[in-house]
Design goal:
The protein has about 350 residues and is α/β, with parallel strands linked by helices. The chain has two domains: about 210 residues, Alpha-Beta Complex (Quinone Oxidoreductase, Chain A, domain 1); about 140 residues, NAD(P)-binding Rossmann-like Domain (Rossmann fold, 3-Layer(aba) Sandwich), CATH 3.40.50.720. About 25% of the residues lie in helices and about 25% in strands. Helix 5 links the parallel strand 8 and strand 9. The protein is globular and about 60 Å long. Bound molecules: nicotinamide-adenine-dinucleotide and zinc ion (ZN). Nicotinamide-adenine-dinucleotide binds next to helix 1, helix 4, helix 5, strand 9 and helix 8.
């Protein structure tokens, strides 16, 4: 089959690789019908995620059709169409029983699985993928949910919702700022709407993304390149700052920006994947009673979000800006990597 293979920082190619095979009785093989590219894939290509080794097939989002099932799989069958969760979970360990699937302790080559697709095992930017612990790691695609919507449920919708909105403890009436209006930040804005915030402020360097954010529930937009960006944000609050600041970029500067705008007793929810450490000025912060959260998506709310997408309570359709054939994935990476010029949000890759 063909797949997108990582060859070290800055290097990738669409090349022939062996077809995946069932390795354990709990595995399935899925033919990819649609996949996409995540900001995290760009971090990997920058060298920010050193656990990804040369030769790894990238990608952790996808919708596909089951072509083979392992002997222990009874609730899925060949021909079923499924959403592949970016987090794989055994469903049986202590963490899985608490719904913290991101820290599943099952051994899948390395102790502890969680986010392994396109990270510790071969991923979904390929014609076929092996899915471990399939029964507890995929969601059947209901009638009426498109492949494009399904792909968004693999990662960005649960990530924005769980690590941005739920960890951020967004409550009715809150003023929420989201720094980074990429797909993950936009997913946080969209799902924040489920909790009744009074304002959702989109903050980005990219004017197009700040504008696009209005389609995802942002009530206000601020360009972070404006010298007075902070004053603009403060003016949208009672002067004390936002209740919840969600970081959805993954660089020290934007984490610090969250600290700059959060009000005393507010919450900073970090969603971004960071490649370096950040300064935490505890000497000035300690007195502010700020809650800080961070984490890897658990995908414990995927089923809820899937129901809301299916019933059109959540409109995920504006996320897809470009569609390519899977074989044109290098072009798709180029377009996604130059989002400010190309106005790309999510690029859909179809078989
Ligand atoms: P993206 O690269 O598409 O979007 C990032 C956005 O940040 C862009 O719109 C960019 O213009 C903006 N930006 C960059 N510098 C900025 C600055 N100084 N001020 C304001 N905005 C700035 O990425 P994405 O796919 O939306 O992902 C966002 C982050 O979430 C990434 O770090 C990604 O790795 C991470 N992520 C985390 C999890 C998790 O489980 N925690 C899961 C998925 C993705
Ligand atoms: Zn587990």
């Amino acid at each position: 089959m063909k797949a997108l293979v990582y060859h070290g920082p800055g290097q990738k190619s669409w090349e022939d690789v062996p077809d995946p095979v069932i390795q354990k009785p709990t595995d399935i093989i899925v033919k990819i019908d649609a996949t996409t590219i995540c900001g995290t894939d760009l971090h990997i290509l920058k060298g920010d995620v050193p656990a990804v080794t040369e030769g790894r097939i990238l990608g952790h989002e996808g919708v596909g059709t089951i072509t083979e099932v392992g002997d222990a799989v009874t609730t899925l069958k060949v021909g079923d169409r499924v959403i592949l969760s970016c987090v794989s979970a055994c469903g049986r360990c202590d963490y899985c029983k608490k719904g913290v699937y991101s820290h599943c302790r099952a051994d899948e080559g390395a102790p502890g699985i969680g986010w392994i697709f396109g990270h510790l095992i071969d991923g979904t930017q390929a014609e076929y993928v092996r899915v471990p612990f399939a029964e507890t790691s995929v969601h059947k695609l209901p009638e009426g949910v498109s492949d494009a919507e399904g792909v968004l449920l693999s990662d960005i919708l649960p990530t924005g919702h769980e690590i941005g909105v739920q960890y951020g403890n967004v409550k009715p009436g809150d003023v929420v700022a989201v720094i980074g209006a990429g797909p993950v930040g936009l997913a946080a804005m969209l799902t924040a709407g489920l909790y009744g915030p009074s304002r959702v402020i989109a903050i980005d360097l990219d004017a197009n993304r700040v504008e696009e954010a209005k389609k995802f529930g942002a009530t206000d937009g601020v360009l972070s390149s404006d010298p007075d960006w902070k004053e603009q944000v403060m003016a949208l609050t009672d002067g004390l700052g936002v209740d919840v600041a969600i970081e959805a970029v993954g660089i020290p500067q934007t984490f610090t920006m969250c600290l700059d705008i959060v009000r005393p007793a507010g919450t900073v929810a970090n969603v971004g994947v960071h490649g370096t450490g950040v300064d935490l000025p505890l000497d000035t912060l300690w007195i502010s009673n700020i809650v800080m959260t961070m984490g890897l998506v658990n995908t414990n709310t995927t089923d809820i979000l899937l129901k809301m997408v299916a019933s059109k309570k959540l409109d995920a359709t504006p996320f897809v800006s470009h569609t390519f054939k899977l074989a044109d994935i290098l072009e798709a990476y180029d377009v996604f990597g130059r989002a400010a010029e190309t106005k790309a949000l999510k690029v859909l890759l179809t078989a």
